[in-house]
Structures are given as structure tokens and as C-alpha cells.
Amino acid sequence: DLKIINDTAYIAWINSDKKLSDDAEKTEIFKTWEISAAEFDKTNKTFKNISAVTDNAETDMMPRIFGDNSEISIVWVKNSSDDIFGQSNTYSIMTSTLSNGEWSDVKVYADGLMPIDSLDGCRYGNSTYIAYATDLDGDQTDCTDKEVYLNKKRLTDNAVLDSKPVFSNDALYYYSGGEIVEYNLADGSSKTVAEAVSTDRFNVISDGKNSAIVYGSSDSLITELSAVMYDLESEKWGESITLTDLDSDIRGSFQKTER
């Protein structure tokens, strides 16, 4: 995970530096997964403070780095059963905070959770927000009971798939039954910003002012790449626009580029 925070790049990733035998079981491989992080040094144009945030014999995965001018943190998922396929309820959410170039001791944010689909974190109003999507009963064949939680409180309660929470600026975005929903952190209001979304694999793109959400939209048997853009003047999300056409060209607002 790569984030630009206070004009500095931070990166967090899964690292494995332990030797394994040729016939190692998959659980042995997962146990070697650790969380590492680094900060980019703009003066020397290289990464510094390259650190191992975790060092244990359990599976650590899904690192997300976030912060503001007062605090930089990482949030990730740990599974004590070394199960990355969602067959157990031994999932925990862990955190660590950067201070003077060193990462703090790992803290348990939440434990005893069912399989976690995705998670993200952010700093807003001097507070930390962590969102995640989890399956309520652990049955991976039924996704209608997968719900989004925000700061350990259930945010969604319905019979459709809710997944892929991601923070951008002052809001939380997530997929909900063919729509992308925006949850406002300031007042707790929610609204749909995109419809006819064919997949929960969407991206929120922002430079701090201008924002866009890019996603797949489905019409019958055809799936196109679509987007909605935030209008600064009206302070509203615009109508959906299609970025692709049947000739497999990618279209932009100002030009067309052959793929």
C-alpha cells in the first residue's frame, strides 16, 4: 500500500524472508508473512526507515498505511490459524504507529472476527477511523451477509453484498449491492454516488481537491469502464460517464487514447 501523506510517500507491504523447504505446506508459507514499511527520503531520493513492523509465526496481511500531520499508522489483518481463505473466525485487526522513525509495539484493534474481505484507515478531525468488511457467519458461498463496519460499529445492515471500504478526503466509500455509497465522516450521512456497478473493484482517485470514482458498469452482457467525477462548484457528484466503447478504446475528458 502506497500513500502520500504531508507530501511524503509511505509504503507498507507483506514481506517474507524466511527459508522454506521445497515441500513446505501452504500454512507454513503464510506463517512467514510479515508487515514491513518504509518512508521515502526526498533529499536522497531513496527509501529510509525500512522496518519490520511484525515478527511472529502468524499470518499478517492486507496492510494499509494512513495518517495526517500528527500521526502515521498502519492497520492490517492477522490470522492466528494461518487461514487466508476465510474458513475460520480467528481474524484480528492490528495497528502500529510511527514515532521518531520507529514503529510502536503492535496493538490489537479488534479480534475474534469472521473472515475480513478488506479494510482501510484514515485520520480525520484528529481522530482515527478504521473500516472493514467482514462475513457474519463465515460461509463464503453466501455474500449477502457481508457487511461494512466503521470503528467497530456495524455501518450496513441489508441482504446484499457490502464490501471494499476505502477512505478518501473526508468520506468513506464502499460497494453495496451494485452501487457505490459515500458515507460522510462529518455528519454521518450516506448517499449513492454510482449505480449499475458490476463489481466491487473500484478506485477512488483524488488530488485533495478533484475526485473521481472509476468502476466497471454492466449492461446486459457488456461491461464497460465508467466514472463519476466530483464537481467543485456545485459540490456534488456528476452523472456517470463511460470511459470505454465497443472498439476497446479508452476515452478521457479531453482526448482519446488507443489502448
Helix/strand layout:
Elements: E1 2-5, E2 8-15, H1 26-31, E3 34-41, E4 46-52, E5 59-67, E6 72-79, E7 91-99, E8 102-103, E9 107-113, E10 116-124, E11 127-135, E12 146-150, E13 153-154, E14 162-168, E15 171-176, E16 179-184, E17 190-194, E18 203-206, E19 211-219, E20 222-231, E21 236-237, E22 241-242, E23 250-251, E24 256-257
Antiparallel strand pairs: 1-2, 2-3, 3-4, 5-6, 6-7, 7-8, 7-9, 10-11, 11-12, 12-13, 14-15, 15-16, 16-17, 18-19, 19-20, 20-21, 20-22, 23-24
Question: What can you see in these coordinates?
Answer:
This protein starts with a strand and ends with a strand. β19 and β20 form a beta hairpin. Strands 5, 6, 7, 8 and 9 form a five-stranded antiparallel sheet that branches. It is mostly beta strands. It contains one helix and 24 strands.
List its traits.
259 residues; five-stranded antiparallel beta sheet; 1 helix; 2% helix
Largest sheet: 5 strands, antiparallel
Kindly state the number of beta strands: 24
Low-confidence stretches: 251-259
Average pLDDT, all residues = 89
Strand content: over 45%
Query: What structural class should be given to the helix and strand makeup?
Result: mainly beta
> End-to-end span in angstroms?
26 Å
- Could you give the order of the helices and strands? EEHEEEEEEEEEEEEEEEEEEEEEE
C-alpha geometry: globular
Tell me the helix content: under 10%
The DSSP helix count reads 1
User: Taking Cα atoms only, what radius of gyration do you get, to the nearest Å?
Assistant: 20 Å
